[in-house]
Amino acid sequence: MITSVTTYLEKLQKIQKSIENSKKYSLFYRGVSNTEYAKHENDKPSIYRNTKHIENEHNMYYELISKCADDFKDCDNTFEHLVKMQHYGFPTRLLDITSNALVALYFACSDANTVEQNNLPNGQIIIYKILSTEIRNYESDRVSLLSNLTKAHPYCLYINFILNELTKNLKQLQNSLTEFRQEIANDREIEYVANDYLNEQNISMLTDELKASNSKDIGGVNTLLSDLILFNNNPVNLKLLQQSLRSIKNCQKHLGEYFSRYCYSLKNEKNGFNSDLIIANDLKTVQFVRPKLTNPRIIAQSGFFILFGLNPLVRDKSAPTIDDNFYVDKSHHIIIDANAKINILNELKSLGITNATLFPEISDSAKEIAQKYAGL
Asked: Do 179 and 264 share a domain, yes or no?
């Protein structure tokens, strides 16, 4: 258990030495003042902490932009919108992290400024490691894909991308079956080739994923699932294949508004961006992002962000999980002794890390100065 800045730095040195090929990795830190809170909410961005928020994410985003348009006039893309929203405590897909271990230590102890000593809980530091080559810049295509989920109902987008993949693969199979019938007379051999193609092109898997996503409230999905199941059981029947394609087209009519809005946003950010290249799994990733250093608070806190896509279960309202490989040791995070928090904050103060330096806005500096002289 950590009781001082010195013991903390010693612990970090041991951790860094334990990482194989450590020079290939960048380490990031997140400090949480309450270990009990950390168990349930720490790796979850704020938009996922309330089911009503994630359901209405796109409405919330546009309403804030509409009411406070002048505050966002200098933002060049949706990710920068989200960074500014996060700055003011608005629920977003972002989770704050830092490249400065001492900044994380401050946040793990920060409740000692407001909570009585007897009621202080232990704090916690979570350490992430990621290959330096995998850190995304704020203008990255992958960052745009996930940021713009905010602008359109993400679940409907995901279903639409599944349907796009199904359409492409079914049309390829349709062409292949037509050729097979001209070259192969044996129906059993045609069926063998068709089944093999179903597996290679993920048609069966995509059908199962659509079924598992609990998407029956989207118009036409029940009919589509029935058609796809029939076709998967009889993959040489071109009539069933064509019926499945018609059912897909009918479903996509119900999803058109969300898909068009998403693609429009992407093309605005990335001129000439080809939305046909997007696959559904692209939307289920978690990205570590280096922001543009235009915000004094981000600069002061050595801030980075984790940007979350969709939960792999899609319809689950909880946040997607961070892969275990991104943690230094998920089962053994660094624990900060509650009784040592005040002393640690005093030690950090001597190193120039205080509330006023980490939150350089005038309101925070004013509060700290007032508190300083109130104690004279």
From this structure: yes
Say if residues 309 and 283 touch (Cβ distance below 8 Å): yes
Q: Calculate the alpha carbon distances from 359 to 107, 300, 365, 368 in Å.
A: 12, 7, 8, 10
149 located within any domain:
no
Prediction pTM value: 0.79
Helix/strand/coil for 25: strand
Q: Is residue 315 part of a domain?
A: yes
Give me the sign of the Cα torsion angle 96, 101, 103, 108. positive
Residue 107 CB-half CA count within 13 A = 21
In a domain, 260, yes or no: yes
Q: Could you report the per-residue pLDDT of 149-178, keeping only the tens digit for each?
A: 898 777 777 777 778 888 888 888 788 777
Q: What are phi and psi of 306, to 5 degrees?
A: -100, 125
Residue 225: φ, ψ to 5°: -60, -40
- How crowded is the C-beta side of 153, counted as CA atoms within 13 Å? 14
